[in-house]
Structures are given as structure tokens and as C-alpha cells.
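Budget justification aside, the reviewers requested a transparent look at the raw inputs and outputs of the sequence design task funded under Objective 1. We therefore reproduce one unedited record. The lines immediately below are the C-alpha cells for a 249-residue chain.
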């Protein structure tokens, strides 16, 4: 028998590592194909402005199919971490109205986020733990203890790229269930804002203007998002307060 750490063991480890990287490699290839074929050009305001009437007419004739296509396109855009998800949200609001678009978008975005989360965790989590050492393990422990609260904050406050918030929890060992809950509920407010902007695109097109995506940072919208974020951190503060009180006692 080959002792542990022998050549055969190393070969098996390398083979396993290669297999783990295959899903991530497939994602990278898919992203490269999107840009190489120029498909990312479709995720822009100019494309939406140019073809909005055609898209609207097609939706009127194929309502159910349009919703299904929108759902899967959005999920793929998120899973591949492509820029332009906001513009897809605007299309949803324009076609389906705020409530329906926000509902479909939240489910689609959550599905896409979970896909890339699982791929990243499968391919990179062990590598991250190995390279990060004790510091990484401490960070992982701290994040996991309050994973839902931290996730809600990261999702509610749109200061970090969506793709980054998909990857970091994967590397820090956040449970899938916690990731799903935090993502689903955390993206609802922002999604509603962008879908409502899309719902008013007809007026924007008529005026020949550009939609104001910075509206989410206006005090009347950003303020409540910060308040929700602060509320989601209450359990973290309580745990720390209780721990310090127990230590003092």
C-alpha cells in the first residue's frame, strides 16, 4: 500500500483539485464567450431604448414565455456575474410592472446567486482556508456566527458589487440555507426600486432622457435601507453585549 503523502496520494489530490475547478472553469469560459460574441452589448440602456417597442410588442403576444425567458436570462446574468443586471431589472419593470417584475427578479437573482455561490464554494473554499491560515479561520468563524445579519447588511446597502457578495460568503463557509434567506430578503428593497424605475421608462423614452439609477442613494430611499441594515445588526450587537456581560459577571 502507498503510505499517506506518497506520489499516488499527491496525484489523487491534484486530480480532485482539477475536478473541483471544472465548474468554475466552465463559468469563466461562458463569461469569455459572452464578451467575445458581444452579447454584453444587449445589457445596456441604448439597446433597451432602441428596441423597447419591439420587446413590448413581443411581450404582448407571448406573455408567459416572456416571463420565463426573463427569469432565466436574469438568473444566468447573475450566475455569470455579468454587468448589466440593473438594466435587465428595468426591462422587467417596463414589461411586467413593478410588483410582478420585482417578484420574478428576486427569485431569479436568488437562483443565480446560489448557483455561483455553490460553484465558488466547491472550487475555492478549501484553497482559501489553506492559504488564509489562522486569520482566515478566525474571520470565517466571526462571519458564520452572525452570517444572516451580515448578509442582510451587504445585500441591503448597495455599496458592494453583487458578485462579490456572492463569493465572499462561499469562501467563509456560510450555510446554503442562510445564504438563500439573506439574499432573497436582502435584495427585495433594491429590486423594487429598480423595477419601479423600469415601470416609468415609457416617460423616459418620450422625453429622450436617461433613467436616474442614482435614485437609490437619495436620502428618502437610502435612509430606510440604512435603517433596515442597522436593524439587521441588532442580533450581532446583542450577542456581543451579552457575551461581555457574561464575562464581566
Amino acid at each position: 500500500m502507498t503510505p499517506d503523502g506518497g506520489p499516488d496520494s499527491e496525484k489523487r489530490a491534484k486530480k480532485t483539485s482539477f475536478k473541483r475547478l471544472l465548474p468554475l472553469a466552465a463559468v469563466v469560459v461562458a463569461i469569455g464567450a459572452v464578451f467575445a460574441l458581444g452579447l454584453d452589448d444587449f445589457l445596456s440602456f441604448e439597446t433597451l431604448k432602441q428596441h423597447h417597442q419591439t420587446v413590448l410588442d413581443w411581450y404582448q403576444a407571448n406573455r408567459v414565455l416572456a416571463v420565463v425567458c426573463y427569469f432565466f436570462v436574469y438568473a444566468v446574468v447573475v450566475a455569470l456575474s455579468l454587468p448589466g443586471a440593473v438594466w435587465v431589472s428595468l426591462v422587467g419593470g417596463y414589461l411586467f410592472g413593478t410588483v410582478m417584475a420585482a417578484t420574478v427578479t428576486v427569485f431569479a437573482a436568488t437562483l443565480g446567486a446560489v448557483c455561483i455561490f455553490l460553484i465558488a464554494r466547491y472550487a475555492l473554499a478549501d484553497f482559501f482556508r489553506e492559504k488564509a491560515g489562522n486569520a482566515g479561520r478566525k474571520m470565517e468563524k466571526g462571519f458564520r456566527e452572525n452570517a444572516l445579519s451580515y448578509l442582510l447588511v451587504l445585500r441591503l446597502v448597495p455599496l458592494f458589487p453583487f458578485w462579490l457578495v456572492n463569493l465572499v460568503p462561499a469562501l467563509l463557509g456560510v450555510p446554503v440555507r442562510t445564504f438563500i434567506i439573506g439574499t432573497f430578503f436582502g435584495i427585495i428593497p433594491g429590486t423594487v426600486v429598480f423595477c419601479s424605475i423600469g415601470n416609468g421608462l415609457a416617460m423616459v423614452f418620450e422625453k429622450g432622457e436617461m433613467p436616474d439609477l442614482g435614485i437609490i442613494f437619495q436620502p428618502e430611499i437610502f435612509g430606510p435601507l440604512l435603517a433596515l441594515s442597522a436593524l439587521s445588526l441588532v442580533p450581532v450587537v446583542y450577542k456581543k453585549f451579552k457575551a461581555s456581560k457574561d464575562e464581566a459577571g
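The mean pLDDT is 81. The chain has one domain: 7-248. Computational costs for records of this kind are itemized in the attached budget.
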